[in-house]
Amino acid sequence: MRTLLAVAGAVAALFLTIAMLGTAGWTRPPMAQQQTGFRGTAMDVIETKANKAAKIEANQAPAPADPAEPGGEKASAVYENVKVLGDLSADNFNRLMASMTEWVAPEQGCTYCHNTENMADDSLYQKRVARRMLQMVQHINSTWKENHVHEAGVTCYTCHRGQPVPKNIWFENPGPNAGHGVIPRNNGQNVASPQVGLTSLPYGVYAAFYAHKNTPEDAIRVNATSALPETKGKPIQDAEKTFAIMISMAQSLGVNCTYCHNTRSVADWSTSTPNRVAAWHGIRMVRDLNEDYMLPLSSTLPPNRHGPMGDVPKMNCATCHNGANKPLNGAHVVEAYPELAGPVASADMPAGVPVQPATAPAAAPDPAMPAPAPKP
């Protein structure tokens, strides 16, 4: 009798479980799939349609301001102390200033950068930084046009998204115990860091790979370039850093590894997608911008704008991309603002910084790498 009751109970439990699973609405959500590589290699970006729609909505480019009337006096003749874009007409200059207010400080308004009782006054650090950022935008749109930003270009909104301080910036990471005066003994890892996808991989990779233009060309690569070892290989810690920066790039662009790589042979350029070429140049663009435009602002930005280690805010891939594989969904934002397309206008610079920084590298040291990146 007990056996019969046990069997009956098990059957009843099975039917109740099936009924629960069958009526709970647990079905796979609609998926969106984008092929990025060769057919049959499973090189696809796969995500839910809801997630894709949310990313598209979060990366809408703002409508450009109405064009200014042609002609008129130059801004440098109408206003005092115009050190950048003084060759624009006064009307076009005002159009750009109004757009910058909407792009960067819509709540604060003009007073975020200007003393409205004396617009020529340079006492606010925000105004001095804004000049340099205008030059940086021109530099990106001119020097990096062919190899990375192409015809889409960038404006202040690409990074700022209506906020005075862009959301996706980084400072040197002092480690989890820095606030207690204790030096961390974790080898710079084993902490669930958002920068590297909440993994325990090294969390200081931005400083290692994104801060300086003289970063060695093989800093990220850990694969051997020959079938048999010819020199001493890199330690496992370097491989962990490479995995960390790749994870960071993937989440910055909202993609997976196969967006750039054929995972059959991750290091092989000949089977990689053109996106890998664009990423190669993008890494070098970030280093260029951080060294020539962000680091020199150390004496301009007040202490409260510095990080816990005393360094200035810097960029990474997410600063522009914001989780989308093309910033602002690939919108050609610079077309409506040709004055931001370059060349770089002159102005007072931080000491030691050239007016026109060095041009972007044209090709990678790896002879198998295709270059330049194709235009979208």
From TrEMBL:
CDD domains per UniProt: CytoC_RC
Keywords carried by this UniProt record: Electron transport, Heme, Iron, Metal-binding, Photosynthesis, Reaction center, Transport
Low complexity bias locations: 351-366
Ranges for region Disordered: 351-376
InterPro entries registered for this protein in UniProt: Multihaem_cyt_PRC_cyt_su-like, Multihaem_cyt_sf, Photosyn_RC_cyt_c-su
Ion transport recorded as keyword: no
Metal-binding as UniProt keyword: yes
Function: The reaction center of purple bacteria contains a tightly bound cytochrome molecule which re-reduces the photo oxidized primary electron donor.
Name of this chain's protein: Photosynthetic reaction center cytochrome c subunit
Organism: Methylobacterium cerastii
Gene name per UniProt: pufC
